[in-house]
Structure to design on (297 residues):
C-alpha cells in the first residue's frame, strides 16, 4: 500500500526543486526525503525526476502525477490545519553526531527535556564530518577539525587521555618503576591485564606512541563494547585502560577506580562543535551547545 507521506514528499520536491529544499520544508532529513522518493518511484514503476546537478527536474510522468495528486493533497492539508490546534507548530528535527560514550556521559540525561525532535548518530569522525558537510547531520561533537569551507568549528572543551586502573592496582609499585625510566614503566604495564574496545584503539595508540615512541606490542586481554563498559569493568578492582578523563572523573574522585599515570607527556585533545555555516536550526543547535558547556565546564 502506498504511504501518503511519499506523496507529500513528492510534492515538496516538485515545489522546491531540490532534496534539501524538500527536507527543510518538511522538517525531515535529506536521507528521509530520498527514501520516500525512491519508494514512490518503485511503487509507481517509473522515474519521477531527472537529477541534473543539484536540481530535480520532473519527468513527463512526474508532471502527470503531480497534476493528479496536487488537489487531493491540498484538500487533505486543509483538513489537517482545521483539526489541529491553531497554536501548534511543526517541530524541527535535529540530527547530531558524536561518539557513543560522549552521548551517554553528556546529552543522554537531557534528551527528555528537549523542546525539539532529536536524532543521535554514532560513527567515526571522518564519516560524521562528511555527513555534516552533506547536510545529513546538523551538529557534531569531534576532537578533529575538517577542511570543508562550509563547516564552522568552535572549540568548547578539552579532554586528557589518561591511564586508569582498578582500585586494587599497586600504584606505589608503579611510581617506583616510572622513576627508573619509561622502558621499565612499559614492561611493568605489559604485565598487567588490559581492557580494550571493539571499536578503534586510537586512545591507547596515541598514548603509547607519545610516551614510549612506538605502538603497543600487545593486545588487550578483555574486549568490551565501549569505553563506558571499560569504566564499569574496572570497578571490579583490577586491570588497566587508557581513556578520556571526563568519562571517569566521578569514579576517580569516589575511589572506585584509580588514576595510574598521566604519562611522561600529557596527551590532550580539544573538543569542537562542528556545524554548517548556513544552518536552518541555529536556536536548537545553540540549545544543545549550552547543555554540553554545562556538563563539561
Amino acid at each position: 500500500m502506498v504511504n501518503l507521506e511519499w506523496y507529500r514528499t513528492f510534492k515538496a520536491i516538485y515545489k522546491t526543486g531540490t532534496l534539501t529544499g524538500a527536507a527543510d520544508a518538511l522538517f525531515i532529513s535529506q536521507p528521509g526525503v530520498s527514501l520516500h522518493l525512491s519508494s514512490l518511484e518503485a511503487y509507481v514503476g517509473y522515474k519521477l525526476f531527472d537529477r541534473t546537478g543539484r536540481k530535480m527536474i520532473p519527468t513527463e510522468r512526474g508532471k502527470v502525477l503531480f497534476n493528479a495528486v496536487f488537489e487531493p493533497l491540498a484538500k487533505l492539508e486543509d483538513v489537517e490545519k482545521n483539526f489541529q490546534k491553531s497554536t501548534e507548530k511543526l517541530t524541527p528535527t535535529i540530527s547530531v553526531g558524536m561518539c557513543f560514550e560522549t552521548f551517554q556521559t553528556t546529552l543522554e540525561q537531557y534528551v527528555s527535556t528537549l523542546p525539539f525532535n532529536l536524532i543521535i548518530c554514532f560513527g567515526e569522525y571522518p564519516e560524521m564530518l562528511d555527513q555534516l558537510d552533506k547536510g545529513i547531520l546538523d551538529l557534531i561533537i569531534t576532537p578533529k577539525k575538517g577542511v570543508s569551507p562550509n563547516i564552522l568549528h568552535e572549540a568548547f572543551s578539552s579532554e586528557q587521555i589518561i591511564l586508569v586502573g582498578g582500585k586494587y592496582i599497586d600504584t606505589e609499585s608503579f611510581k617506583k618503576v616510572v622513576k627508573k625510566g619509561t622502558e621499565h614503566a612499559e614492561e611493568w604495564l605489559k604485565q598487567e591485564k588490559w581492557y580494550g574496545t571493539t571499536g578503534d584503539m586510537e586512545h591507547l595508540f596515541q598514548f603509547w606512541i607519545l610516551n614510549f615512541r612506538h605502538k603497543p606490542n600487545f593486545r588487550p586481554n578483555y574486549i568490551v563494547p565501549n569505553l563506558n563498559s571499560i569504566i564499569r569493568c574496572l570497578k571490579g578492582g583490577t586491570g588497566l585502560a587508557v581513556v578520556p578523563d571526563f568519562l571517569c572523573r566521578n569514579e576517580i574522585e569516589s575511589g572506585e577506580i584509580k588514576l595510574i599515570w598521566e604519562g611522561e607527556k600529557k596527551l590532550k585533545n580539544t573538543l569542537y562543535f562542528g556545524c554548517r555555516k548556513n544552518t536552518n536550526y541555529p536556536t536548537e543547535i545553540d540549545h544543545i551547545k549550552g547543555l554540553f558547556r554545562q556538563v563539561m565546564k
Q: What stands out?
A: The CA atoms of residues 99 and 124 lie 8 Å apart. The domain at 93-156+270-296 is CATH 3.40.190.10 (D-Maltodextrin-Binding Protein; domain 2). The mean pLDDT is 89. Residues 60-83 form the longest helix (24 residues).
